[in-house]
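Closing statement on the flavin-adenine dinucleotide sub-project.
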Amino acid sequence: MRHIHNESLWLATAQRPHQSPLAHSVEVDVVVVGGGITGMTAALLLKRRGATVAVVEMQRVGYGETGHTSAHLTELVDSRYVDIESDFGHDAARLVGESSRAAIEHIERWSREFPCGFERVPAWLYAEGDEDAHGLEREVEAARGAGVAARFTREVPLPFPVAGALRLEHQAQFHPMKYLRGIARELPGGGCHLFEESRVVEVHDGEPCRVKLASGVELTARSVLVTANVPVFNLLALHTKIAAYRSYVVAARGAKMPPPGLYFDTADPYHYTRRHEDERGALLLVGGEDHKTGQCDDTEVPFTHLQRYVIERFGSEDIAYRWSGQIIKPADGLPYIGRNSASDNVFVATGFSGNGMTFGTVAGMMLSEAALGRSMPWTDLYEATRMKVLGAVKDMLVENVDYPVHLIGDRLAVPDRTADDLAPGEGDVVLVGGRKLAVYCDERGTLHGLSPVCTHMGCHVAWNTTERSWDCPCHGGRFDAMGQVLNGPPVQPLEARPMTEPTGALVVDENAEPTGALT
Ligand SMILES: Cc1cc2nc3c(=O)[nH]c(=O)nc-3n(C[C@H](O)[C@H](O)[C@H](O)COP(=O)(O)OP(=O)(O)OC[C@H]3O[C@@H](n4cnc5c(N)ncnc54)[C@H](O)[C@@H]3O)c2cc1C
Ligand code: FES
C-alpha cells in the first residue's frame, strides 16, 4: 500500500498564492464573511454588477468545507422530492429542482472562464434491497412531478448487484478548488478585495454595517453577507434549526472503476461515489459514514469502514487520500438563505446538507441579488427566518436536546486520565491539579493546556484523534489542537490555561460567555 495523504485531494492539487490579511479599515458596498463557494460566488457576481466587495476569510479561500467536499453536482437533493412535496407542496419541489439546475448551469458557465474539469455525467440513486428499490419508484414519480427528468432502472454500472435505481442524465462533477482559484484570481481589483487569515468576530447591522476582525480592524459596508457555512453571528435563532455532522471521504487508485457518473446509495449510513482523473490515472472517491460532530469516540472508525467498503465493493486497498468535513443539516430539509432575523442589511446562508456545491451557488446568486435589494424566484422558499417545522419538529427537538445534555453532562463528567497519560500527538480532557483542562501533547512531548469550555455557548469540547482537533458536541464548533477556531459557530479561540495549576479541589465548571456578536 502506498503512502496515504491525510488531506483533501482538492486542497492538495490546487495551490495558489496567499492573499494578505486586512491591515487597515476599508469601506465597500458589501462585505462577505467567508471565502467558500457561497461567498466567492456572491462576491464575483456583485463585482460584475458594479459593486465594490471585500471578502474576509479567517483561513484561506476554500479551506472550509468547499475544500473538503466530494463535488457531486446534482438536482438529487438529500431531502427526497417525496418529502419536499409533502412538507412544502408541489411548487416548492419544482423550485428546488429548478434552483439546483440553475446552480449547475452557473458553474458550467463559469467553468469556461475558470477551467476546473467540469464534466456532465449521469447520476444514480440506487438501492441494494428490494424494499428500498420500491421506495425509489415513488421518488422517481415525485422527482418527475418536480420537473426533474428522472427514470427508474434496474441497470446500474456498478461492480456489485443493485436492486433498482433512479437515473438522471446531465448532472455534473468538477474540481472545486480549481474553480475557486479562478474566482479568487478574478476578484481583487476595481475596488474589490480578498483578505485571508482575517477572522471576523463581530457584525453590527446598521447604516452602514460594521464588521470587526479579531485584529481590531473594522470594515464598513451597506450590506454584509455571512457565508461562513454556519450562522456565526446569529446566537439565538439559526443555530437551533441546524445540526453539524462530520462526513468522510477516501480516494482510491486501482479500483474496479464504474463509468463516469455520480452514485448515491440509500443505505444507512449512506455512501456517495464518483471518479476523478489526475495525471496518474483514475481515482475512485467514496464518501459517507457521517456522525454528529464531537460525538464519535474514535474518528478512525469511519475511515476504517469506508476503506473496508472500497475493498469489498471496488476491490482496492490503495487509498491515496482521505479527509473529512462538516455537513450542516437543516431542521426542515431545505437550506436557510436570506435576510438574518432582526437585521435589515445582514444576510446569511446555511443548512446545505450534502448539496452545498449547488445550494452554495444558489445562495451566492440569491445573496448577491439581495444585497442589491432584489429578489429571486426562490427567495420565499429558502427564507432564513422561516419557522417551518411540520414533520421535522420532532427531529429538530431531538437534535437540540444535545445542547442541554452535553452542557450539563460533559461538565459533570470526571476525566479518568491525567496529562501524564498522553502520548505525543494525542489530546484529551484530563485532570491537571484538580482542574479539567483540554490538553494536547505535541510531537516533541510538550503539553499545551486549554479551557475545555467552547467559546460559543459553553459546552465541553472532545478530542478528535484523526484530525487532531477539539470538537464541540453541541453545535459542531471545532478548534485546532492549539485552540484556534476551525469551524463556527464559535468565533473566539479556546482560552489558554497554564499547565501548572495548583493542586486543589476538582473544578468541574467554568463560566463562558458567548462571544460572537451580532447587533
Ligand atoms: C465530506 C463532504 C462531502 C460533500 N459532498 C458534497 C457534494 O458531493 N456535493 C455538494 O453539493 N455538496 C457537498 N458537500 C457540502 C459542501 O461541500 C458544502 O456545503 C459547501 O462547501 C459549503 O460552502 P460554503 O461556502 O457555504 O462554506 P465553506 O466552504 O465552509 O466556506 C465558509 C468559509 O467561512 C470561513 N469562516 C468561518 N467563520 C469565519 C469568521 N468568523 N471570519 C472569517 N471567515 C470565517 C471559513 O474558514 C470558510 O472558509 C460535502 C461536504 C463534505 C464535508
Ligand atoms: S458549538 Fe455551540 S456550544 Fe460549542
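The first strand starts at residue 26 and ends at 33. With this model delivered, the sub-project is considered complete and its resources will be redirected to Aim 3.
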